[in-house]
Design brief:
Helices cover 33% and strands 22% of the residues. The chain has 532 residues and is an alpha/beta fold. Helix 14 crosses helix 15.
């Protein structure tokens, strides 16, 4: 325990339940505190676990401010702490009765009252963190440490994290993908759910040559637990994905409207093609000659120019080696089997990292997985004896491309975010532009982990639906460009600014479910690397 943990920092002077409390700090305490610091207010028989939302400089006499004694250190020292002081704006989040602590029944609960005047404020101790957040183990995973308190854990409840949709945000360069790997490490180690990761840039499975020291998940866990599928048959993946044109539906093309610059008539054209040719609609479109096009237009009432334009814009699919005219194999069945057997699947794209390929394949596979889980749920209703599904978390990068206000209606991910919790499937979105994600989808994200954001619209989107948004905005704005994140929502008892746990091969010491060795430390954030 730090020798200053018991130091009284100041006393409550005024405030309200809705607006927060004002604490007049003792002289010199202001520069030792930061926005987002975890503190405790000692009330009459109760402890209030609180966050510092803001720090302000105040003076008892306006004349001091209008004519500051800038040339007299003696006068400044004489005024300090008496007529000039620092005030902390504090927001209590949880409370516990001291009597409960004595009898060993201490369970923090939501605050419904406030402490009295002159309640003392102190720094939170290690035992306060253990009481509020819990010790790492089982479903609790330490994501890092509080600011300026290395060696103290802040944990998130992984079971709560995976049972509802979540989001990881941050502008480019703040380490989103490394932070996501850290969270996935916790999920895999705890074995509470299976993860399906759509890995656009092949970052999650293996350590990359240009980023040494940042291991992939297959480096930390053996290949029996992490399975890698790839569109690229040149990759090191254990499985290669081949998709037949007969497996592509008009809804999968609908998502590519903006990427392919499709006009408003293409949707009705694909519908007419699918109605006429069934699952062969795409292969038939791409092989139509002029006579066949004219015949189809006459029979269906489609516009010939629209059919020809659609054929031109979808012709690129014929150049993709992973797309076959007809495929009898079903990669989805194999992926679902691995997930149900407790393994974790990473889908890589290799040299096919064009956004069109990523969006098409990710949407197609997820739509089929949604269908598979829905059918299995219906089967359980008919035969109640069938065992429950193993929870699955789908990790989606570049989420705004799938979940923009226009795309969310066509993308299966909008349905997964809104409806799939009852089937044991949750969505974890990873994105640098949360403001471009549909507001209804954002409202479904129960836990949000965010690195630095500077765009006001992005900040507002991340904090939408949370309590005390103005205070959280200050905390989010105070983050460093890397090494820090704000965690808020369902999986954590109260919002916290966290210095992220080191992500390295040293984590393998805990990969078999053992409690982490404190000697690993929590000081190096993402190895100090800039990684998106």
């Amino acid at each position: 325990m730090n020798e200053h943990d018991d130091q009284q920092l100041g006393v409550v002077t005024d405030g309200s339940f809705s607006a927060g409390l004002t604490v007049r700090l003792n002289g010199g305490a202001g520069e030792d505190l930061q926005v987002g610091s975890f503190v405790v207010l000692e009330g009459n028989g109760r402890r209030y676990f609180s966050l510092i939302n803001d720090l302000q400089l105040r003076a008892t006499d306006p004349g001091i401010i209008s004519d500051p004694p800038v040339h007299s250190p003696f006068i400044r020292a004489a005024l300090s702490g008496i007529h000039t002081y620092t005030a902390a704006m504090v927001r209590p989040s949880l409370v516990i009765d001291n009597a409960d602590s004595i009898i060993g029944d201490a369970k923090p609960r939501a605050v419904r009252t406030i402490p009295t005047h002159f309640a003392e404020m102190r720094r939170a101790r290690e035992e306060d963190f253990d009481l509020v957040f819990g010790a790492e183990g089982d479903d609790l995973f330490a994501v890092g440490s509080p600011i300026a308190m290395d060696g103290v854990n802040v944990t998130i409840d992984l079971k709560k994290l995976v049972e509802r949709p979540s989001g990881i945000f941050g502008q480019t360069g703040t380490g989103k993908s490394v932070l996501t790997r850290l969270i996935l490490f916790g999920i895999i180690r705890s074995d509470i759910a299976s993860a399906l990761v759509f890995d656009m840039h092949d970052e999650y499975a293996d350590e990359k040559h240009d980023k040494p020291g940042i291991p992939g998940l297959r480096d930390l866990f053996d290949s029996t637990r992490v399975k890698v599928f790839s569109l690229d048959d040149r990759s090191r993946a254990g499985y290669t994905i081949k998709i037949g044109m007969n497996q592509i539906e008009p809804a999968d093309i609908e998502l590519l409207r903006d990427e392919l610059n499709l006009n408003d008539t293409f949707s009705s054209t694909t519908f007419l093609l699918h109605r006429q040719y069934g699952e062969k609609w795409l292969s038939k479109l791409l092989t139509m000659d002029a006579d066949e096009t004219a015949e189809f237009v006459a029979a269906s009432g489609a516009h010939q120019g629209a059919v020809e334009a659609l054929k031109r814009k979808l012709a690129y699919l014929e150049e993709r080696p992973f797309i076959l005219p007809i495929s009898s194999t079903d990669p989805v069945r194999e992926i679902v089997l691995h997930l149900q057997q407790g393994r974790h699947v990473i889908v890589q794209f290799g040299r096919y990292h064009d956004l069109r390929d990523y969006m098409l394949v990710t949407n197609l596979l997820s739509r089929r997985i949604h269908q598979e889980y829905t059918e299995r749920a219906q089967a359980r209703e008919i035969q109640p004896g069938i065992g429950s599904e193993r929870p699955v978390t789908i990790v989606l990068e570049e989420a705004h491309k799938f979940l923009s206000p226009s795309a969310a209606r066509q993308s299966i991910f909008g349905t997964i975010a809104r409806e799939m919790r009852k089937f044991g499937v949750s969505l974890m979105v990873v994105d640098q532009r949360p403001s471009q994600i549909d507001s209804e989808v954002m409202s479904q994200l129960a836990t949000r982990i965010s690195g630095l954001l500077t765009d006001e619209n992005d900040i507002s989107a991340v904090l939408s639906g949370t309590g005390d948004r103005s205070a959280l905005r200050s905390m989010l704005a105070s983050l460093e460009p890397s090494q820090q994140c704000l965690v808020v929502g369902h999986a954590i008892p109260m919002p916290m600014v966290v210095r992220t746990r080191a992500y390295s091969r040293a984590l393998t010491a805990t990969a078999n479910g053992k409690r982490p060795d404190q000697s690993l430390g929590l000081s190096v954030l993402l190895g100090g690397r800039r990684d998106d």
